[in-house]
Design a protein that fits this description.
This protein has 15 helices and eleven strands. The chain is an alpha/beta fold and 396 residues long. It binds 4'-deoxy-4'-aminopyridoxal-5'-phosphate. The site of 4'-deoxy-4'-aminopyridoxal-5'-phosphate (PMP) has 13 residues, from helix 5.
Length: 396
């Protein structure tokens, strides 16, 4: 039965991790993986998370199923985190539904299956480039995937190209937008650009699906939600996939949420009932622990304050490293060439390094990143920046 099955190459990033592990260069630098790292190169458990887990362990009374939509206490805190703490018109109108999911990936798969089942025939449009798993998830759900441009030949945000392409998207199709910290490029839309996209989306009656995987990693918890809230408040229908993997550092707990915004409460309840079916068919109930951690933290003023401080520390570290990277290249006259790294946001950067330069950095200097030139900025450190700058100068 299995004789004809071909082996496919593994994920390029996993291959990179293996190669990095084997490299004996003492100065080697890993800029490939997709997780936050602190100054020591670790991905630690946040203090607020540890404290919440201690409370959960002490107070837990059951491990019974939590239902297809997950824990309502988790939804209660995630909805205002995403849509606004105070006076969210969307929440007041009760037109948003939250379904806990196994990570942002699980939420995206729910969205994809919902679109496939309830809105058949709609095409979906993603930025070129986008997080590669977008291609896999939407294609697996049988949705036709199309691309709109996002980066120009000079490694800048190609907003005019994007806007022109969005104006041509067939009415009624789905457009995937990254709320902030665009993966893989780090180029985000500014407020005026969000407004322009909103107008086209409204004109063409498109359905936005906003992937919100890095809330708090760009400019701040509230600032990063600007585009999401603008769309939700001004459109009848929006799909949002939120992830707590990065901002709570609970990658392996698989914690995310599908938020469906509908025209009114009645339609929201209808949509919600269909999302429950999609969840049930995929995995029945989401894993409980990660949602319980987030809920425990955000229901406690004290733990929430600790968490916000830790999140701010991560964000500030990344943004400082971005500026220091460009400063380290100044002695080599390369600061203007790589200035985009300081302007981008989030964990990833399209550095503008060419594939041949990436290969040389790996082979000659033990510096590992994806061949597209995407670097994980959290892999920079004040210790390795001088070495990185020297190596980049050598391949330029
Ligand atoms: N969307 C984007 C853009 C991402 O970068 C990621 C994680 N790399 C996800 C979604 C999925 O996140 P999670 O780990 O919560 O499934």
């Amino acid at each position: 039965m299995f004789e004809h099955i071909e082996r496919v190459p593994g994920d390029a990033i996993l291959g990179l991790i293996e190669a990095f592990k084997k490299d004996t260069n003492p100065q080697k630098v890993d800029l490939g993986v997709g997780v936050y790292k602190d100054a020591q190169g670790n991905t630690p458990v946040m203090r607020a998370v540890k404290e919440a887990e201690a409370l959960l362990l002490k107070n837990e009374t059951t491990k019974t199923y939590i239902g297809s939509h997950g824990d309502p206490r988790y939804a209660e805190v995630v909805l205002p985190m995403v849509l606004g703490q105070q006076g969210s018109a969307v929440l007041e109108a009760k037109r948003a539904s939250a379904t806990q999911a196994p990570g942002g990936t699980g939420a995206l798969r729910l969205a994809a299956d919902f679109i496939s089942a309830q809105l058949p025939g709609k095409g979906i449009w993603v930025s070129d480039p986008t997080w590669p798993n977008h291609h896999g998830i939407f294609t697996a759900a049988g949705i036709k995937l199309n691309k709109y441009p996002y980066v120009d030949a000079e490694n800048r945000l190609d907003f005019s190209g994007m806007l022109a392409a969005v104006q041509q998207i067939p009415a009624g199709d789905v457009i995937v937008l990254h709320a902030c910290c665009h993966n893989p490029t780090g180029f985000d839309l500014d407020r005026d650009q969000w407004q322009q996209i909103l107008e086209v989306v409204r004109e063409r009656n498109l359905l936005p699906l906003i992937d919100f995987a890095y809330q708090g990693f760009g400019e701040g918890l509230e600032e990063d939600a600007y585009g999401v809230r603008l769309m939700a408040e001004n459109l009848d229908e929006v799909i949002i996939t939120s992830s707590c993997s990065k901002n709570f550092g609970i990658y392996c707990e698989r914690t995310g949420c599908l938020i469906m915004v509908a025209k009114n409460q009645e339609q929201m309840e209808n949509v919600r009932s269909q999302v429950a079916i999609v969840a049930r068919e995929n995995y029945s109930n989401p894993p409980a622990h990660g949602g319980a951690i987030v809920s425990e933290i955000l229901h406690s003023a004290e733990l929430a304050a600790i968490w916000r401080e830790e999140l701010t520390e991560m964000r500030d570290r990344i943004n400082t490293l971005r500026r220091d990277f460009v400063a380290a290249l100044k002695p080599y006259g390369l600061d203007a060439k790589y200035a985009c790294v300081a302007e981008q946001r989030g964990m990833f950067s399209y550095t503008g390094l060419e594939p041949q330069q990436v290969d040389r950095l790996r082979d000659e200097f033990g510096i590992y990143m994806v061949r597209s030139g995407r670097a994980n900025v959290a892999g920079f450190s004040h210790e390795n920046l001088p070495y990185l700058a020297k190596a980049i100068a050598a391949v330029n």
